[in-house]
Amino acid sequence: MASIAKYPLTDVFRAIDETRYWFSAPSRSLAEVIRVFEKLGAPKSEAEATHFILQGIKLLQETDFVQSVLQWNDPKCIADVYGKVIEGQPWFIKFRIDEDGVLEEISFHPPNKSMTTVNGTVIF
Asked: Does residue 20 sit in helix, strand or coil?
């Protein structure tokens, strides 16, 4: 799709600051963050993993954008994908903002394949 994100990061950050977010698949995102940090010898609780994910999203810059993707073959459900290295680890980050301004469809896990951001950085 487009090389410009559908959702302005200012709107995304505001949703986090106002606690207007919902993890549609919390078990995978939280489990992956917990797994990565356990492997590094720095385990995180679920609360710490949630905090890490939300703060990680707030570290995003426009240059970290990879692409917008269609969710569930529904043209009303477009999510933005970002790639970023945070604390030395690569992360696949995906989300959308719904019609009520809620940040949802949050995915946050190591990438399954390499991603190239709009500035040409390869994340894997």
From this structure: coil
DSSP, collapsed to helix, strand or coil, labels residue 28 as helix
Domain ranges of the chain: 9-123
How far apart CA 22 and CA 14 sit, in angstroms, is 14
Q: In the CATH scheme, what is the code of domain 9-123?
A: 3.30.2310.40
Q: Cα 63 from chain centroid? A: 14
d(CA 83, CA 107): 11
Residues 118 and 65: beta-carbon distance below 8 Å: yes
- 67 closest CA partner among 52, 84, 86, 82: 82
Residue that has been written with the tokens 């949703």 in this structure: 15
Tens of pLDDT, residues 29-55: 999 999 999 999 999 999 999 999 999
pLDDT digits (tens, 9 = 90+) for 3-15: 899 999 999 999 9
Q: What's the whole-model pTM score?
A: 0.94
Tokens of 93: 């980050």
